């Protein structure tokens, strides 16, 4: 079973940040405003208007990752 980075796969505690507004960095160097729903050592859940494609590499603060699903 390959871990997909889904909430059920997270082994670390999820925290809700006090400042939920952030900028999600996209591969073309642009940023989009998003709302951080929760974050852990192994991933984050964010809400944004225009959803990047599954597999898109992104940055959130100093974290690097990829889009693994849409809500």
What does the average pLDDT come to?
84
Radius of gyration: 12 Å
Approximate strand percentage = 35-45%
Percentage of helical residues? under 10%
Q: For the largest beta sheet, what order do the strands appear in spatially?
A: 3-2-1-4-5
Number of beta-strand segments = 5
Distance between the termini: 22 Å
What is the H/E string?
EEEEE
**Global geometry:** globular
Query: How many helices does DSSP assign?
Result: 0
Low-confidence stretches: none
| Global structural class | mainly beta
State the major sheet: 5 strands, antiparallel
Characterization of the model:
This protein has 71 residues and is mainly beta. Helices cover 0% and strands 39% of the residues. It has no helices and five strands. The chain has a five-stranded antiparallel sheet with strand order 3-2-1-4-5, with no helix packed on it. A hairpin with a 5-residue loop joins strand 1 (21-25) and strand 2. The chain is globular and about 30 Å long. The model has no long low-confidence stretch (mean pLDDT 84).
